[in-house]
Amino acid sequence: MTRKERFAHILSWFRDNVPAPETELSYSDPFGLLVAVILSAQCTDRRVNMVTPALLERFPTPEAMASASFEELFPYVKSVSYPNSKTRHLIDMASMLVADFGSQVPSDIDALMTLPGVGRKTANVIASIVYDKPVIAVDTHVFRVSHRTGLSDGKTPEAVERDLERHIPVEDRARSHHWLILHGRYICTARSPKCQSCGLAPWCRYFGQK
């Protein structure tokens, strides 16, 4: 099976079986999603969703968060991973939004990546979900699923991203991130992947080699 054929079959299965995937992070506006995605680094969406309601009720805008002290904000995020650095990132990110972007979350990938706590994956998530940009964020789940299925052999997240965007039509890219991350989270898990119940098994390189 060629890689082109593999992509065609897998994307067709996702279109038929998961037509409208969505992020599992709870948010009500672009700023709220940006906060949630920063907090989600190496942390579960479930935990982040437990933290953000109180955090964003107390600091609902970039201005409010930018004016917070470390001691004021830290208690709201202390239960997530790396709370010290994430507290600083949130305050600095909000300050930059106010100072450089008129308190608006930018849509440009490079502009997003200038914000503290925002790497390429986070920038792509925001651009894809909020602004429907045809980009694919590659996290550990997307990386793992892409390798196992044979969609990519890229050695880095950026290389996998290039492979995915090379083969996935523009109209499918925004939701492909959700397809792959949710598949990795619940089916193609890091340990003991559920191959026998996986709809992608007929076209999966890993399953074919078992």
Written account of the structure:
This protein is mainly α and 210 residues long. It folds into two domains: 3-21 and 138-208, Helix-hairpin-Helix base-excision DNA repair enzymes (C-terminal) (Endonuclease Iii, domain 2), CATH 1.10.1670.10; 30-131, Hypothetical protein, domain 2 (Endonuclease III, domain 1, Orthogonal Bundle). It is built from twelve helices and no strands. The radius of gyration is 18 Å and the shape is elongated. The mean pLDDT is 95.
Helix and strand arrangement:
Elements: H1 3-17, H2 30-39, H3 45-58, H4 62-66, H5 70-77, H6 83-101, H7 109-112, H8 120-131, H9 140-149, H10 157-167, H11 170-186, H12 205-208
CATH homologous superfamily caption of the largest domain: Hypothetical protein, domain 2
Low-confidence stretches: none
Report the CATH architecture of the largest domain.
Answer: Orthogonal Bundle
| Domains, number | 2
> How many beta-strand elements?
0
> Beta-strand level of the residues, as a percent range?
under 5%
Query: Main beta sheet: strand number and arrangement?
Result: none
Task: Kindly report the average pLDDT value.
Answer: 95
Name of the CATH class of the largest domain: Mainly Alpha
Coarse morphology: elongated
Radius of gyration equals 18 Å
Distance between the amino and carboxyl termini: 16 Å
Proportion of residues in helical segments: 55-70%
Question: Structural class per helix/strand content?
Answer: mainly alpha
Tally of alpha and pi helices: 12
Element-by-element helix/strand order: HHHHHHHHHHHH
